[in-house]
Design brief:
Layout lengths: L2 E6 L4 H4 L4 H8 E2 L8 E6 L5 E5 L6 E2 L15 E7 L4 E5 L2 E5 L4 E4 L6 E5 L8 E7 L7 E3 L5 E5 L8 E7 L10 E7 L5 E2 L3 E3 L3 E8 L7 E7 L2 E7 L3 E5 L6 E4 L4 E8 L8 E3 L6
Length: 280
């Protein structure tokens, strides 16, 4: 079978206070992404959010339903967001085929039955990063390139956080039920993302880090603002961030990351911010 799935239940802030490093990694680190010729999923019980990947080389990969959903098709009651972080590829949803270049995104709406992933060059395969959330309405499929994105230029080199936030699958660009995704690119010399740190009490979030060189790493900070913890992240790994947790990181050099969210609303700015001097 070309699909692998794991499931993790939600945990609260009081439990996490007693976790050691390995327990933190077991609960929140996603380190099995981008397996060749496999669709991998992590099903979380935070907003029923799913994070996954598809890397086709030997042929097309088909989006199969999984036991967790108890549904005839994967997208019976879900929507799907895709961002390609590899070579050129195609995604076919029923009778529509979309070509995705590096850092292109695609939204696929509820009730799409036959979805396949394919690389255009198997020696330089596409790497499709996937997020999925429950959906109550069918919206049209739509490809979004970085030229289509709403771009926020934030931070400064002086504070080591100059970055471009490419808002791609958000409600000002494409209609979705609750899923939002985007891509943040840090400028050379900048290493801090998402500072000041914040929480989303009304949604969860997942960070997927990529373009981290082999000998480099990112330290991801999580936890309550006055009870922070950290995880060391390497290339093409992700971190699940519950509603009670901040999510911020600092790398040993600049890097990129994809953020994906789902929850109570589609207000991108719905966040509770904490300045650096407030963190513990």
């Amino acid at each position: 079978m070309s699909t692998e799935i794991e499931s993790r239940y939600a945990v609260g802030p009081n439990e996490v206070k007693g976790y050691d490093t390995q327990q933190l990694r077991d609960e929140f680190l996603v380190d099995k992404l981008m397996q060749v010729d496999k669709i991998y999923w992590l099903y979380t019980h935070y907003e029923r959010f799913m994070v996954g990947s598809a890397v086709p080389t030997a042929g097309a990969l088909t989006l199969e339903t999984v036991d967790n959903l108890k549904a005839a098709h994967f997208l019976n009651g879900r929507e799907l967001g895709i961002i390609n972080v590899g070579g050129r590829g195609t995604v076919t949803a029923d009778n529509e085929t979309f070509e995705l270049n590096y850092k292109d995104a695609l939204y696929i709406g509820k009730e799409s039955k036959n979805v396949t992933f394919k690389s255009c060059d198997n020696t330089n395969p596409a790497k499709f990063y996937l997020n999925s959330a429950p959906a109550h309405h069918k919206y049209p499929n739509k490809r979004v390139t970085r030229n289509d994105a709403n771009v926020l230029h934030l931070g400064a080199l002086e504070t080591s956080n100059e970055r471009d936030i490419n808002q791609m699958l958000i409600n000002t660009v494409v209609k979705t039920c609750q899923l939002q995704m985007g891509l943040t690119e840090l400028k050379p010399g900048s290493v801090w993302n998402t500072m000041p740190a914040h929480q989303h009490d009304r949604r969860n979030e997942v960070y997927f880090y990529f373009e981290i060189p082999e000998q480099q790493a990112v330290c991801h900070f999580m936890g309550e603002p006055t009870e922070t913890r950290h995880l060391w992240i390497h290339n093409e790994q992700a971190v699940v961030s519950p509603a009670w947790s901040i999510h911020s990181g600092s790398g040993t050099q600049n890097y990129n990351f994809i953020w994906g969210m789902a929850g109570e609303n589609l207000d991108y700015d719905d966040m509770d911010k904490y300045q650096p001097h407030e963190l513990r």
